[in-house]
Amino acid sequence: MSSLATSHDSEGQAGSLPGLSRQKQFNQAGSRSRSQGSRDNLNGWAFAAPFLAFFLVFLVWPLLYGLYMSMTGKSLTGANDSVIGFANYAEALADADMWHSLGNTLYFTVISTIPLVIVALVMAALVNVGLPAQWLWRLSYFAPYLLASTVVSLFFTWMYNPQLGLINDTLVKIGLPKVAWLNDPGVAMWAIVIATLWWTVGFNFLLYLAAMQNIPAQHYEAASLDGAGAWRQFFSITLPQLAPTTVMIVLLQILASLKIFDQVYQMTAGGPGGATRPVVQYIFETGFTGYRLGYSAAISYIFFGLIVAVSVIQFFITRRRSA
Amino acid sequence: MATETLTRPATSTASRSAGRRTGRRMTPGRAAVLAVAALLAVLWLVPFAWATATAFKSETDAAAPKISWIPPSGFTVDAFVKVFQDGNIPLWTWNSLYTSAAITVITLVISALVAYALSRIDFRGKKVLMVVIIASIIIPPPVLIIPLFYQMVALHMIDTSWAIILPQVIHPAMVFVLKKFFDQIPRELEEAAVMDGASRMRMFLQVVLPLSRPILAAVAIFVFIGAWNNFLWPFIATNDGSILTLPVGLQTIKSAYGIQYAQNMASALLAALPLILMFLFFQRQIIKGVATTGLAGT
Fold first, then answer.
1. Is there a contact between B254 and A154 if contact means CB atoms under 8 Å apart?
2. A157 and A267 in contact (C-beta within 8 Å)?
3. Nearest CA-CA distance, residue B47 and chain A, Å
């Protein structure tokens, strides 16, 4: 097995590491600690090498190359590779479609995060009471998370069908008017939110359930000795104990919602009239159907800036909490 | 609201789990909880039920203006037969299976190795490496699609399974999940191996890995589900019908069938089946896997 390690050494780090030249593994005169140290250097980078190779080629390189692309007029047809500086960024910032798609993304993030956190909390609180047939609740709430976005989109496009769909049929039966779910610009985003809630709430539900089951039983024992009822226990013990989990789930959900693409692309293709088109779809379209790779990369980096901003806020919130 | 059992009751752990198994006295509060939970469960199962009902209808019944759970001309497996004859679903399922399996295996191997180094070996540059990997957690995959596509074209990998697999094996957050777990394994266990002059690789393979099965399983499940359901990247990286994964393939079927509702639902159900079956068999591991790795990104 040690031969495996050495083979990684030679390919993964030739000459790139300070300290390797001082390597004295076989030098009897060298102190034990020093030879141990250089062996550690060798081993450490050998173990890191396979990951590092993938990391550099499929993450760092595209990240840097994308940044370069964003400063060029590169197109899918190969024309105009020249560097044009920040012109793409300037154009993007003046591009109404870019702002519209960014606005859609933020709108979706706000209106999806709230139900995705609250419904998950309610589900977990209900199940955590100790209902019989735990597997049944877990299966029904969590199973949709295991579906591909395409399956979810097929299910909901069918249910949202204006004439043949189950949802409108139910609405009519209970005396409500039909809704043009995916065709009404004012409603389409909410239709996407409902499908997304159904699809992914199970993930947050599981995180909440796991956190609830980690709250020590003594807390509740003490509270019920003091005569606190169930609601009181929930608001005075469960919710405060869940605060760090809630912060995490909210922030993870915001970051996940900002990346929305699949279900919109599959259910409305961004329509009607661009009403649901998120920024990831705009990146995709400017690059692959508009052939403007450089411009598309510039929008990617504006989007990245947004994510970084949210992540930085997240970092400070979570650090303050744990401090 | 008389929901005195909204939070879990203040009983000892033993009696609580016993209560879970046998079911307790049905108080009004408990009944209310059960009713709300059941309502939610029904709402969450309706899309599956409606898709199933549709998939077993004839196309005529599925497209009938008066919608019904039980079709006038009875249930039929025609839609499934047509989907199977078409042959794409089994092929795409197979493609999804092996690309996801490959992604999972490669991710586990490279992540466990680097996590071991970060946990156990004091090497020069370790801190820098750690910071770089942590920082990379915030990079959203959609940002990379344009340059990655360009890269795949340059590497002549477009329309090969490698284009789907290789960019999906980097999971910085999972590296830290593994590192945290390795950190908790007592170093003393390796000392005996050190005395025997064992190499690092041996300690890793014979001491650390066997003790890490639960976390390896958790990471594997998390990565596998993500890879199985990924749409955006495989959608961009492939056009070749013979290597499409299930989610991308289904997207093409939707437009090809047009208004074949029963066939659409039959395809969707067949596509959903493998992971649902997996969940039924490995429920406990999947739940634990998602719960332990789910918050890892932060």
1. yes
2. yes
3. 6
